[in-house]
Amino acid sequence: MEMGFLFMSGAYGDPKGFQIEKMVMKKAGWKLSEDRYFDPDPAQRRIAHKIYGLIAGCLIISPHGHVDPRLFSEERASFGTPVDLLIIPDHYVLSMLYSMGIPLESMGVQPLDGGKFETDHRKIWKTFAANYYLFLATPTRIWLDYVFYKVFEVDKKLSADTAEYVYDHIQAKLDSPEFQPRQLFTRFNIEVLCTTDAAYDALPYHKAIRMLDWKGDIRPTFRPDSVVNLLEPAWMENIKMLSNVTDIDIVSFTTYLLALEKQRSYFKTLGATATDLSAFSAFTTELGRDELERIFQNALHREVNGQDTALFTGRMLIEFARMSVEDGLVMQLHSGAYRNHNELVYKCFGPDKGGDIPMQANFTQNLHPLLNKFGNDPRLTLVLFSLDESTYTRELAPLAGHYSSIKLGPPWWFYDSLNGMNRYFNLMMETAGLYNTAGFNDDARTFPSIPARHDLWRRATSNFLAGLVVKHVIDESDAYEMALDMAYRQAKRVYRLD
Question: Helices marked H in 3-105 — which ranges?
Answer without folding.
Answer: 15-28, 42-55, 70-73, 82-86, 91-99
